[in-house]
Every structure is written in structure tokens, then in C-alpha cells.
Amino acid sequence: MSRLTRQGTGPVAPSEDDQMAAVEVDQLTKKYGEFLALKDVTFSVEEGEVYGLIGPNGAGKTTTLRVLATLLEVTSGHVRIYGKDLVKQADEVRKIISYLPEDAGAYKNMKGIEYLNFIADFFVEGEKKREMIQRGLDVANLGERIGDRIDTYSKGMARRLLVARALMIQPKLAILDELTSGLDVLNAQEIRRVVKTAAQQGTTVLLSSHNMLEVELMCDRIALINDGHIVASGSPQDLKAKYNAANIEEVFVEVVK
Amino acid sequence: MRSSLSHIVIKEVKELLTPGTLIPIIIFAVIFGSLGSAFGGATSQLSEPPKLGVINQDNSTMSHFVQMDLEANSKIVYNGTDVQAGIQAVTQQDGAALVVITSSFGSNITNNESGVVQIYWIMKGTGILDSISSSTADSVLAKVQKDLSKALIDTHADIDSTVILNPINATQNTIFKGKEMAGINPATISAVMAGQSIVVPLIVVMVVIYAGTMVVTSMGSEKENKTLETLLTLPVRRSSIVFGKLAGAAIVGLVFAAIYMVGMGYYMSSLTGSSSIDLSKYGISLNLLDYVLVGISLFLALLFALGLCMILGIFTKNYKAAQTMTLPVTMLALIPMFVLMFTDFNTLPLVAQVFVFAIPFSQPIIAMNSLMFGQVTIVLMGIAYEVGIALVTIFIAVQLFKKDILLTGRVKSAEAKRRGSNSLWTMMKRK
């Protein structure tokens, strides 16, 4: 796996001797009342890595991402993001992450440019803010439509805007839930390209998907999650070799047999 | 197979008739039922003879006739010679008025002048129902005048017909909260007070409805449009999000309420403009400090409303559900408005006083009425209570903002179980 250092003004610039994992999840358990949604989930993500959680609906992918995004409480276990304790330093964690929910929306009464401006205001000001918004405009690539109200956007346009929002802040960790869910092939391909570029520039990416092709295309390593616990993990190539499978879908079926 | 129409009707009814919509309506019906029985109890006073005190300073046949007629038509709780002692006795006995038949009553009538009767009304409260006892006493005095007229026609036909028709000249004095107000009766004071003090309850209700609805629908909208999750992962404290939403709603709610009140102000001035009674000459008015206290009380009531609506908003699932969420808060604002419109806070039974006082929306209304009569202590107590409950409410809202329930709602556990059991993977495994 390659470790890359961001070029430019972004927050990711690890020193040569900085060996800390970007994400360390240790025996994470999450309960909704009596329902056990995650059971002793353990994995780690290295800096600059694209790590994928894959599994069926209701397997616990979104719950894992929501916990890591500081949205849900930890029932037990430990999570550290760039060395910061998720529970004790939640405010600090939020400064270095960006979370894109599966069915995320934007404020529909705003114009695209206003939305990017609104988000940028939480992070920087002055010239840095202008640079941040420009990055957002480049990623969204909506042309003149960026000046239109968001409620006039197609699903693909809205998703591009939201991806732009998530990546323009150059987070240390981008948490992306079902990145291309519901998008057509062209829009999906474009968004994957944008995320890959961000990863190459140093952003660590943790994504979830039930699209096996997407996972193979994008991820350095993956974890297969089912019924709230991780059943297998490794690089797509290693997993295919281990289970003698032609693709990740076959690995998937083999693992949960 | 059901018809298409009935199918849609059933679906709509199921969607609209939920515990969330039904329970507030039931509570509303129960409250109105209770108010109805309270009014029924109050109006039953109309059929009871009023409690009066009588001082007869005259020794004429006519004054004795009036005294006997009063005794026959009312319950006399004081019969003596001292006005102050009489006022005290009638007040203690929960009576309506002290009637003083002046020393020249009989001679005035025989000299073709109306006989003077001084009435000291004991006013209990400013509510509409509080003036019932004085209304019944008024009816008794009207009957006494009529009876005296009849008697004079039989015995003193030589007296001027105008005097025979109006043999009693009643001078009115009202005693309320230690103030003696000459030349005015309780019904007039109540009417003017109602006209003036309706503004505060209306502001309370309007602000609660507008600002409260904003907060709840903002939460419902954030959840429905899936923008809340993004907001919660931005580098901003949960308390800042809560206070930001509260402040935004407060500003817009106050602007809306102000626009509404401008219209309402014109309406009220057209009503009170026709009133010739100026209560300020009796010392019933508010000074600048009083207005500041009412303003503080109103602001704190708004803060509590917003905090409460924020808590409700946390539990709402979407924009539509948010619409019904404001009902309980609106009703909570309507209760003191209706109760204190009909009865004075001071004349309520102790249990009712505690209940009304506990509703923070009562405080600005109580403040307005109390400060008019210089009662500052209860207003300060109310403000202290409002500060406490507003802080507690907002603290709870901030804490809930840090909990899973903000995103998962109440049904998550069951939903998660359902999703788990129906997942593609579970089905694949079953195969």
C-alpha cells in the first residue's frame, strides 16, 4: 500500500516518523436498546488508504460509519481517529473528518454555491476559504448550475455537490456511506474518480458499499461485515486468492456459507 | 377486495390518526371539559343569594324597608354601624358588598330627592367569573329599588314621579387588593382590565405558536432532507447548534408576532378607545420597571417554549410529524390564557393556582395583572421559576442532541430488528 503526503494547503501532512494508523477500531460494540447492531468489530485503516466496508443491507456498515463520524454513541470498545479518542475528543475528531451519508441532502432553499460557502464558513476564512470553495467548485463541476437552487438539481448533480462539500475541506479522513448509491454509470464513475484523486492527495477514505465492483475498483483493503461483525478482511486480491473466487461477490458468498 | 376509495381512505386515516395527533386532542377536550365544569360552578353562584353587609345610618321607615328587603333577598353577613368593620367582615365572609344606607336616606326621598346608598364592592379578582357575585348583588339592589318604588306609590303618591321611579341613588366604591376606588364598580374594572390584559396572553400564544413551530419544523425538515447528519459532523459544538436554532427561531418568531401584534394593536385600540374609564387614575397602571419585568417574563416564557419545542423536535421523524408536535405546546399556552381570562389567579383554588403557576406561559399574564396592583413578589417568584425551568429545558435539549435518539428516534430498536431479520444476507443464509 502506498503512503502519500498531500501537496498544498490541506491538513494532511504526516511526518516521516509518524506511524500512527488513521483509524483504529478495537472491539467496537453498538446496541440499539436490546438489539446488538455491532459485535466486537475490530479493524484499522492506514493513512492514505481507501478502506471499504462491504455487506448486505442491515449488516452494520452504516452503523459503523455513523459511530466513527461521532453521530452515534459507542456502547463498548475503543475507536481512535488519528490518535484522537472518538468519545473523549469528539469535537477534535470532527475537525479532521468529513462524513457523507448515503441519502444525504443539502439545504434545498440554498443555491449550490451558497451551500459550499455555508460549509466552508465552519472551517476557514479569508483567502483559505476562497481556495476551499474553489476546490468544491472543481469537484462539483456543475458549471453555471452551481448558481441555481439545490431543489432544482438532479440526483446526480446533488450527489456531486455533496461529494464536493465532503472533499473540499481536505479532511484527514473521509467517511463515505454508499458513495454512488442510486447514481447512473457515468455519474458513479465520475464520483469514484474524484474520490480516488482525493485519496491520492493524502485523504484517508473509509467507505461502505454493497456494490462489489465498486469496492474492487476503489479499495486498497476491504472488510466483509455481516450481522454486525467482520467475517473477513484483506486486500481484494488476497481475499479472492484465499477463497479461490473470481470476484469479491463470490468471496462474499463463500465467507457467509 | 376493497374498493380503491376505501383503500385510500383507510390508508389516510391510519396515517393521520396516530397517538401523536389523538392524545393532544383528548387532552384538549379534557381541559375544556374541566373549564366547563368550573364555569358551571361559578355560574351556579347566580342562583344563590349574594352575601352582603348592611349599615343603616337612617331611622326612617324607608331605610328600614330597604334593610328588610335586602335581608329577604340576600344573606346578610354584617349588620352594624362601622364602615371599616363592615368592609372587613364582608371581605372575610367572601361577601359581595357592604351597603350603607346614609342618614338622610328617608328625608331625601320625602324631599323629592333620591335617597343615597353607598355601596362598597368587595372585588375578588379581575376575571370575568370573579364579577359574578357582584352581578347578583347588583340584581338584588335593582330589585330593592323596584320594591321601594312600588311601596312609595302606595304610601307616598305625592312624591315626584321621577324620584318614585328611582328612589335610590347608589354611589359606587370598589375595594380591590387594598385599593379603594371611588365611583367605579367591579364589572367596569373587569371589562377594562380584560381589554388591556388580553394583549399579553395573545403575545404569549402567538410567539409560542410561531417560534415553537419554527423550531420543531426546522428539526423535522433537517431530518426529512437528511441534512442533520452532515450538520452534526461539522466542527461545531452541539450546544452551538441548539442555541443557533433557538435564536433563529426566536428572532423570526418575534418578528412574526410583532407583525401580528401591530394589527392586533389597532384592533384593541379601536375597542378600548371607546372606553371612558382610565384605570391609571385609580393607581392601576404599569410603570417602566413593570413593563421591563413583563418583558423579561415574556422572553423567558419564549425561551422555555423554544427549549420544549426543540425537545419535541428531537423526537420528530419528518416535516409532517413536526406539524402535530407543536399542538401540546400550543395547548399549554392556551390553558393559562383561557383560565386567567375568566378567573383571577388569586381567586383560584390552591391546587389550580399551583397548576397554573407551574405552566411557565402563565407567568407573563400573571405578571401583567399583578404589577397593575403593585404585587411585585409573585412576579419575581415567577421570573425565578421561569429562569430555572427554561435552563433545565434547554439543558435537556442539548443533552438529547448528544444522544442516539436524535438520529434514530424511538422506533430504531424495532426498526433495526426488522431490518436485520429481513436483510438480504439473512435470507441468503436461510437458503
Question: Describe it for me?
Answer:
The complex is a heterodimer of chains A (257) and B (431). Chain A has 257 residues and is an alpha/beta fold. Chain A has a domain at 23-104 and 173-255: Rossmann fold (3-Layer(aba) Sandwich). Chain A is built from 9 helices and 10 strands. Chain A has helices spanning 61-68, 90-96, 112-120, 127-140, 155-168, 185-200, 212-218, 236-242, 248-255, and strands spanning 23-32, 35-45, 50-54, 76-81, 84-85, 97-100, 173-177, 204-209, 221-226, 229-234. Chain A has a 6-stranded mixed sheet with strand order 6-7-8-3-9-10, sandwiched between helices. A 4-stranded antiparallel sheet of chain A has the order 2-1-4-5, covered by helices on one side. Mean pLDDT of chain A is 88; it is low at 1-17. By secondary structure, chain B is of the alpha/beta class. Chain B has 2 domains: 45-190, abc type-2 transporter like fold, CATH 3.40.1710.10; 198-417, no CATH class. In chain B, 68% of the residues lie in helices and 9% in strands. Chain B has 20 helices and 6 strands. Chain B has helices spanning 4-16, 19-43, 61-73, 83-92, 105-110, 132-155, 161-165, 186-197, 199-224, 228-232, 238-272, 288-315, 319-325, 327-342, 350-358, 362-372, 377-401, 405-408, 412-422, 424-430; strands at 51-56, 75-80, 97-101, 115-122, 168-176, 179-182. A 6-stranded mixed sheet of chain B has the order 2-1-3-4-5-6, with helices on both faces. In chain B, helix 9 packs antiparallel against helix 13. The two termini of chain B are 33 Å apart. The relative contact order of chain B is 0.09. Residues 411-431 of chain B have low confidence and may be disordered. At the A-B interface, helix 2 and strand 6 of A face helix 10, helix 19 and helix 20 of B.
